[in-house]
Amino acid sequence: MIMRTVLGLALFLILVASCKDDEIKADNTPSSIHTAWINPEYLDNTITFKKSTELSTDSYGIKFLTDGSVIEHKNAGFCGTPPITYDYFYGEYNYNEGMINMTVPFWGGSIDIVWEVLNLSNTTLVVKVIDQVYHENY
Tens of pLDDT along 47-97? Predict the structure, then answer.
């Protein structure tokens, strides 16, 4: 009877340990950020992105590469009235302890951005905008 209980408990523990959670903790797996993130949804200072293999050609998106570079697909000019023209802007980022610091050009100069990663899963990236500093060239 004791052997049966011990065997049952061991089997249960193995089963529980083998379950995989879909959630990926931002601090434990920063490599999961290395992909394209599109379809931003904005709520106050929080942005929720959906994971993609590529950036969209007709809307905002951002792609983090393994070499520390970032590609931001965004408005190519100062005018935000449709039709909006998009372009690719290449910059650099650093990911450390759930924080993303990046510098990316924009049509009028460059911008330093700080995001806090609130959630990083197999399908979604949620960030909180901590800071944005524009360096204008016009």
Answer: 999 999 999 999 999 999 999 999 999 999 988 888 899 999 999 999 999
Cα angle 53, 55, 56 (rounded to 5 degrees) comes to 120
Domain that includes residue 59, residue range: 21-136
Which residues have a Cβ under 8 Å from the Cβ of 107 and sit 6 or more positions away?
Answer: 75, 76, 77, 78, 87
Number of domains in the chain: 1
Residue 90: what pLDDT? 98
57 domain-assigned: yes
Q: How far apart are the first and last CA of the chain?
A: 81
Give me the residues paired with residue 110 across strands. Answer: 105, 135
Give the confidence band of 101 by pLDDT, cuts at 50, 70, 90.
Answer: very high
The strand pairing partners of 100, in sequence order, are 95, 115
76 domain residue, yes or no: yes
Report if residue 86 sits inside a domain. yes
Report DSSP letters for 71-110, one per residue.
Answer: EEEEESSS--SSSPPEEEEEEEEEEETTEEEEEEEETTEE
